[in-house]
Amino acid sequence: MRVNTSVTKLAVLMLPIAAFAAAISAATAQTEPPSNVTQRQHGMKAMADAAKRINAMFKGSTPYDARTFKAASEIIRSQSGAALSALFDGPVTMAGSKASASIETDRQQFDKLAADLGIYASALSVAADRNPDTLGPGMRMQTGDVMGGGPLAKKVGATRDAASMPAEHAFHLMLQTCTSCHAKFRIETK
Question: What is the pTM of this model?
Answer without folding.
Answer: 0.75
